Every structure is written in structure tokens, then in C-alpha cells.
Amino acid sequence: MSADRIHFIASHSDNAQDALQQLTERYGQFSPDEADVIVALGGDGFMLRTLHRLLPADRPVYGMKLGNVGFLMNRFRQDGLIERLETANTVELAPLCMVAATEAGGEARALAINEVSLLRQMNQAAHIRIEINGSVKVPELVCDGVLVATAAGSTAYNLSAHGPILPLGTDALALTPISPFRPRRWRGAVLPSSARIRFEILDPYKRPVSATADAQEVRNVVSVEVFEEKDIRLKLMFDPDHSLEERILDEQFL
């Protein structure tokens, strides 16, 4: 692909801001609408915020690690950036759509690239009913929470909650309970990406629950629907020797 026009964006850290200044002086700076590619400088959290913020621009994003975590990032190097961009592999990801209904009667929608998670807001465990495609699969999950993760997000919060790692291209989602108490033997499920998942909060006044799509939180929810938004495609670029697919595979052997 052509990569002559680049839009650089950086986190607020000092090293990322220094790199931003040096790279823009060397390669120029174009607006997101004019650019062929967006280069994000930071860590994984900043990459997620960049993807959300620049979603309307519909441009591929190439990240370079200048933060604490860089699973979605390439190694930082100033030299040969145009050549790296032109030879990079592009991975397309579909985000999750969260539709949350609140106690106050409102509705909130948000997209998630990594996961949608439900968490108890107080000291009492949450009681949650889980439906898949309109059929009740877990009548009452007693837990600290539950999440739905994409393949790209399966190595993040999902992995910490002992959920499965999903290789890219599997067209699957991970449904993972967080500190489950009952049912005692249920440890989650791997669902087809076409599944529509509905969570109903049981006794939401006594046991309030919040729902979060990546970093966007909605509190005091009574029900949450989650499904893959197939009409939206996010494009991430990786060096051929540093592919996301290979890193997801490697995580299963650590």
C-alpha cells in the first residue's frame, strides 16, 4: 500500500511526545482524512483509544510501542518507517456492540474492540441470567462479573479471568465468568461470532451492576445485549515478523 501521507498521534507521555515531534519533522504530518495510514505512538490502552476516536476516518492504524504494554504495537524505530508501512500486514477486526438498558429507563450504546464486561458495583455478588440467541443458558450466575471478549481481546482481561485464548480468524467470542460462585462447574464458553448474548441483572437494586465496553462504563444496568458489529472493520497493521496472529499463538505457550 502507499504510505507517503502519515498522520501521527501520540500519548501524553514524555517519550511519546518527543517521538511525535521527531517523526513529524522527518516524515511530515497530514490530517486523518488526508492520510494513507495513522501511526499511533504509545501502549495498548492508547491504541484502543485511537481506534475508537478515529473510527470515522476508516484508515489503517500502525502502532509503535512507547508505553507499558504493547501487545497491539510494533517495535519503535524511526528509521525506514515508510518501507515498514508499505510491507506491513493488515489485520481486520470487527468490534463488539454493547446495548445497555439502565434502571432509569435509558439506553446506552458503545463499541468494544477488546471486551464488554459486567461487574458488581457493591460488596454483594451479582446475580445475572445469560441468554444466547434468545435461549436461557445460565438461569442464574452468581459472580463478581462476566465478560465477552473478541479474539484480539482474549489475551487481555479475559485471560486474567482464566478465559480461553482465541486465535485470529476463528470467528469466535469468549464468554467468561469473573470469580464465579454458582454454577460451581461452569467456567465459560466459546461462542460463534454470530451469537447474540443477553445479560439480565437479577435484583439490580440490591445487587447493582455496571457494564463497560473497553473504557466506556454504564452504571446501574438492568440488561445488556452484546453482538459483533460486522458492518464495521478496524484495520491494524503489523510488521511481517511481528504479527498479531503469531503473538496470540505464542501466548498459549507462556
TrEMBL record:
Its cofactor is a divalent metal cation. NAD(+) binds at D44, G45, R49, N114, E115, D144, A152, T155, A156, Y157, N158, L159, S160, Q216. It is found in: Cytoplasm. This is NAD kinase. It catalyses: NAD(+) + ATP = ADP + NADP(+) + H(+). The active site is at D44 (proton acceptor). Keywords: ATP-binding, Cytoplasm, Kinase, NAD, NADP, Nucleotide-binding, Transferase. GO terms for cellular component: cytoplasm. GO terms for molecular function: ATP binding; metal ion binding; NAD binding; NAD+ kinase activity. InterPro entries: ATP-NAD_kinase_N, ATP-NAD_kinase_PpnK-typ_C, NAD/diacylglycerol_kinase_sf, NADK. Its EC number is 2.7.1.23.
